[in-house]
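Per-residue structure
===
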Amino acid sequence: MGADPLLGPDVQGIKFYTVGWTTVVSSGSGTSGSFTQGVSMRTQGDFFGFLPPSLPVYYDFALQQDPDVTIDSWMLSLRLSGRYNGTADFGGNGAGEFSGPGLINLSHDSGSTSLGLVAYLEVHGSRTGNGQVLLDVPRASSFDFGSSVTPVPEPATAGIAGAGLVLAAWLGRRRRLTPPQKL
């Protein structure tokens, strides 16, 4: 598991990810019954900056189950604690790929100088044999705190669009100023 900073002109935050598939529920030797198992990713450090009243978050992950395992439900909690406090909870059912945006409404504790971030995924289900549950949070997707979930056009795209508008304006002006030609 890893963590990277999210840096950009208007975006600052952190992202959590796994390096390959991570075991949430390990295979047992003939064990059957229900299970509740969680995976936690966390980081903490000094933080003296300021955050907006609401922090955008984004999640994108996959759960895989063996044939003798059934994932009944999952709950993802993205949480800040310390100088700022707030939680965004998401839930779903079954195995598959899951993603979505959210907001954490923050409260401010001016007496604290630390900030902790936690991504906690809890899986509930049952198994009838040796099956396991695997989690994948790709680095390109991840659990993002402070992410910008609105796509921003690449600078080249904006430049091409701007150049096209300038060209269209120039051609329109040229047509108005050029007298008609006699043939």
